[in-house]
Amino acid sequence: MQRTLKTISRVPARRRLIAMAVAGACATLSVAQAQDAANPTDSTTSAPTVVVTGIRASMQSTLNMKRNSDGIVDGIVADDIGKFPDTNLAESLQRISGVSIDRSNGEGQKVTVRGLGPDFNLVLLNGRQMPTTDLSDLSGRSFDFSNLASEAISQLQVYKTGRADSPTGGIGATINVMTARPLDNPGMRASIGAKAVKDSSNDHLPGMLKGDSVTPEVSGIYSNTSADGRFGVAVSASYQKRDSGFNRAGLANGYQGPYLGSATTDGVTLPQPGQPGSQNITNRPGPTDLYSIPQNFGYSVNAIQRQRTNGQLVLQFRPVKELTTTLDLTYSEQKIQTKRNELSVWFGQTPTSTSSWPGGHVQAPLTYEETYKTPQDISVVGGDYATKTKNQSIGFNTVWKATPTLRVEFDAHHSTAESGADSPFGSENNLSNASFSRGNTKIDFTHELPVLSMPAADLVNQPIQAAGSWFHNSWEKATINQAQAKGNLKLLEASELNFGVGYTDASNRSTYSNVQNNTWGGATKASDYPGSIFQANPLGSYFQQLGGHDAPQLFGTLYTFDFATLRALTAKATGNAAGYLPNFASADTDRELKEKTSSGYLSFGTDWDTAIPFHSALGVRVERTKVTSRAQILPGTGISWESQNELPLKFAGAAYSNQDASYTNVLPSLNLDFDLRPDMKLRASAGSTIGRPRYDQMQGGLTLGTIANVFTGGTASVGNPALKPVKSKNLDLSWEWYYDQQSVLSLALFHKKMDNYAGQTVTSQSLYNLHTPIGGAYYNAAIASGCTAADTNCLRNYILSTFDGQPGVTKTGVKSDGNLNGTIVGQPTDPLANFLVTSYANQKSATVKGAELNVQHMFGRSGFGVQANYTYVSSPTKYDNANTNDQFAILGLSNSANLVGIYEDQKWSVRIAYNWRDKFLAATVDGNGRAAPVYTDTYGQTDVSVGYNFNDRLSFQAEVINLTNATQRQFGRTEAATLNVTQAGPRYMLGARYKF
């Protein structure tokens, strides 16, 4: 379908509002309708017209949106109804300067804008604040774009500067997702599309985990209006099935340490020069150097099957041209089934280790090897779980043009998001099995894929048997009830007054339960399982994209098993059926946070017909928020040493705590834009915005980790309901040159000073008067007998054999590896247990500044074009890798760039896009709850799409996501300190679309 789009340029002040109205129409999906030329004598429509289609029409509409907005706004407009440029909204957003994305399973999921992470970017749907739930990030505020299909989306608007009429919550940006409205597109419009999807990551999984080789996507949209233009209906629906996977190697719990090179902690740190074992260290870290030691390492294969269903119904009624009412219902459901298998080992930090080091003030080993007096376990882990996320929204909107100068609008909606288990085995689980046959164990970090070798392992004579397990059941529900009333009053010829009030009632509730068996030393006998239950697979074949996958010393076998079958056999063998299922009846933690916000705003905008014409918009927004937190408390009652390195906690009955807080914010804003000449603008903006803390940062109630560690103690977390939002003072400057209808060159500078940042703190303290057997009388007697602190099997064997029957000590038998089984409970005379308690406080400030360079250029009428942008972001608040204390740093801060090549004619449309993101700090706490940095390494991805128009109605599309099969990596205090590497694979799509 052709579109006739006109260049919108600066006109005298009294005509600017007319020009903006025309531009706004172009920026919405209504541009999909071919327009007839207006009165040729009208100065606002006398500019030359160019008929453009498809990608170029979308680019031009996007420029009009950007050019005629208050403040700095970017966006993306759909090519046509039901035809958004990307299959994933997050992947569309990453093409915008200043926007980068976080990927999950090779797909865009959440966005970072101008260095501010997903929790500090507000996502709206048609101007409404939407609830969000995500079990992988329980109680965060970040919106997961993978829940929304792109077919029903007409445009994305990214507001990078504050405006009085914008809801609060986005410091980086406020992102408004707009859906199609039938009365904006008169007449009947409909299309249906189908795709066949082949995700190559599915091909790199063991046979028993693989999904379908090719999966379907179908979508359709129908929009129609009555002949008189009074009634309109639009219906859209889509269904997507995707079978994929990813394979990962890494240290799930991070590194032990860091330790100072001069440290002499017995059994944990490296031996000092001259001590036994020091001869096995090559290039030993110096006395003032910091070094870390691997704790546990594993290889995992992960199969993901997803079904996503989206639907929307829109009904509109316009009884008179001055009044438009809209009723809309939106529904999305995403089901994800996960199957995973893992092979892993635990390093005990023995004094008999052999290691080599790279040198430097902060180090991680190049190679690390341990030997053991008794055989250790090779852990064979599997999981099979599923989750379901459902989003529902019903909204009503009415717009009334009461007089030629007064326009009023009322909008209300009720929206919910709910996530929970969709499997009888819970929302996440693990069955841990083991062969107790591991001798010397070495890991080599000099390859892209860390190489684990265990030459003495013997799984034939020491078959796999069941060990520990856990079954999680998580549930989260968020609800938003929101009402907004606003108006626009035109004053004189070139001024307007915008005003409004609103009320938002938001709640977030999450529950969590855990059923765990701490029989890590062995729960069953290998004879309890048929020989066929564990299937051997060639491990290196699942990491062929990573250097080191074919290393001859790599332990070559990954074992897989059917989770349901093994779970049933283990439950039968142990006689503990309830212990191998999740607890759906009650929760270990239950937390709810409610926020009630009343708001009002006022802004005044006017045109100034000066030597350099400019427009100003001065506004203020006032908000009052009341917070109520209700949390379940589960007090700890005891600690029991039940396996080699782990100390499970015992808990008493639940209690609840309630806390209230409130805060008020006054948020001014000023936006100026100067027409330097008809094709060039200069913008300046100043104002304040806020970003609300995460729900889990605010939810009260102390939560204890269920297992403490022999070496590091326990973990706990507690929120702070009195946390205030981060308040940011923003300055922005933008120069924009619209040198052609579809071309622009722009440079934007920004500076954000943020106060009240909720810094994460980790403190060491004792809780609930809990005593640990580590360091107690029995423990010290075992040390005196000759055991070392690192040889926990020796310690346990001595205590269980020597003190069996005495208070707290119960021997229950002998494990298959010859070590004793039993429990050692902390006694009142033992030391108090140490817990690392994570909490939050408004005690941090940070500054972020940066620049965005953007160019969009079409090469005449050749059909070729290019989009390119680069974003530079920096902050003086950086993580110091040489500092072992708790630190505050901004997460997600990174430079990014995009390069997109375009070709389009009447038949073909081709787009090749490269997206690059520099390394960034992803977390300040590692997988074991310790204060330690987690960095995501530099990543670049290439996507390709090709479209062919068979005729005006039928078109075909071919797409490739991650064409070059890029892999992802995370590291710790140094770039050599690999935490994990992940291989997925390209995704291929072939589709067709028919317009009626």
From TrEMBL:
Protein's cellular compartments: Cell outer membrane
Cited CDD domains: ligand_gated_channel
Boundaries of every TonB-dependent receptor-like beta-barrel domain copy: 463-963
UniProt signal peptide: 1-34
Domain (TonB-dependent receptor plug): residue spans on this chain: 66-167
Disordered, as annotated region: 414-433
Pfam family, one: Plug
Keywords: Cell outer membrane, Membrane, Receptor, Signal, TonB box
Chief place where the protein resides: membrane
Family designation: Belongs to the TonB-dependent receptor family.
NCBIfam families documented for this protein: TonB-Xanth-Caul
Protein name per its UniProtKB record: TonB-dependent receptor
Species the sequence originates in: Duganella margarita
